[in-house]
Design a protein that fits this description.
Length: 368
């Protein structure tokens, strides 16, 4: 093969010897890499390969020849020491292979998962014990109680969550009422929209939606904040000064969410009921006055208090899980992102699980 440009990669076959010359580099091979690879693959690798006349050879050119040789050195090759080093590095690189599957690999993975989950659950319960001890110590010594941290967490969590909760709560009320309106209208049971909307929003959707939003919004922020302090060694500095991180970082968040989440649940209930009222008026002709007057009769107050209690429980749970995963962070950014994700997933899972358990326990209570 010949080429007019002396710097272009070229090769020539004479009898049993193939002689390479020019510059076999990525810059020169860029436009003809595939063509050269196809032509060289048709040449028998048992020929004598003479690379002594090469002007330049980089990793791209060496890889092209290495693949043409079948990922091994030809039996007969002539090259200088510099090029020999490049091919030696290629020979040392083993191709990526999948690890062989062990017969009990699935059981091993399941066992590792169960052990890790059990360790996390044990750590969570230990953290709850530490929180109770710190809370009792704070009651005995009110001056050492983290009042400022609690108020700061309430301010940063409550008002800033109102816009998204207002939107979601309103849409939940609209959807519930809209989906129920057509069915109720078919049977002439328009007034039962009050029962359906009031019971589902006050008892289930209000606290559940609030908890899920705060898990993704505030829970992740708590974990990231505490985890970042681990990465920057601020937690070690607190311990050096004799300040327990649980008292200053986790306990204030638990108390703050236990106080603020029930209030957010009330707000979500209000906007959800308002959205249901709008749809009931537009689709079923039920007046606002009748809706508000019938609500306490159709939906006993127990459902409202159950939703508020759920909010307090969910608030404690969110801050508790977020604090645990924040303290679990190792001093690297990979661990920080992983634990933040685990915190949100674990919190939402537990919130839904506890809500389902409470729904079963109070299935026939406060409905009529």
């Amino acid at each position: 093969m010949t080429d007019h440009n002396p710097q272009e990669p070229r090769w020539q076959l004479q009898e049993q010897t193939i002689t390479l010359s020019g510059r076999w580099t990525l810059r020169r091979l860029g436009g003809s890499f595939a063509r050269q690879q196809k032509m060289l693959s048709n040449i028998h690798a048992d020929l004598i390969w003479d690379l002594r006349n090469l002007e330049a050879l980089d990793s791209a050119g060496a890889l092209l020849l290495w693949q043409a040789w079948g990922n091994r050195f030809p039996e007969k090759i002539q090259l200088n020491d510099l090029h020999q080093a490049i091919f030696t590095r290629l020979a040392d690189l083993q191709p990526l292979t999948h690890p062989p599957r062990r017969p009990f690999q699935i059981l091993d993975a399941l066992g590792a998962f169960l052990v890790e989950t059990g360790g996390d659950l044990w750590g969570i319960f230990l953290l709850m014990g530490a929180l109770l001890l710190e809370f009792g110590r704070g009651l005995r010594h009110p001056r050492s109680f983290p009042w400022r941290e609690i108020s700061a967490t309430i301010v940063s969590t409550g008002p800033s969550s109102l816009p998204i909760l207002t939107l979601i709560g309103f849409l939940i009320g609209v959807v519930i009422s809209f989906q129920s309106a057509s069915t109720l209208a078919q049977y002439g049971a328009n007034i039962y929209i009050v029962n359906i909307a009031g019971l589902s929003i006050l008892r289930e959707f209000g606290p559940l939606i609030t908890a899920i939003i705060l898990s993704g919004r505030s829970g992740s922020a708590f974990t990231a904040q505490i985890g970042a302090m681990r990465v920057t060694e601020e937690l070690d500095a607190l311990r050096t000064f004799g300040i327990p991180p649980i008292r200053r970082l986790v306990l204030p968040k638990v108390i703050a969410l236990a106080l603020v989440v029930p209030l957010l649940v009330l707000w979500t209930d209000m906007v959800g009921i308002f959205g249901a009222m709008l749809v009931a008026k537009a689709n079923l002709g039920i007046s606002y006055h009748f809706f508000i007057q019938e609500m306490p009769v159709a939906v006993p107050s127990f459902n409202l208090w159950l939703g508020i209690i759920k909010g307090a429980v969910f608030g404690i749970l969110i801050a508790w899980i977020a604090g645990f995963h924040g303290l679990k962070v190792k001093p690297n950014t990979t661990s920080l992102s992983r634990e933040t994700t685990n915190s949100v997933v674990f919190s939402i899972t537990l919130v839904i699980l506890i809500d389902a358990i409470l729904a079963l326990v109070f299935a026939n209570t406060g409905i009529s």
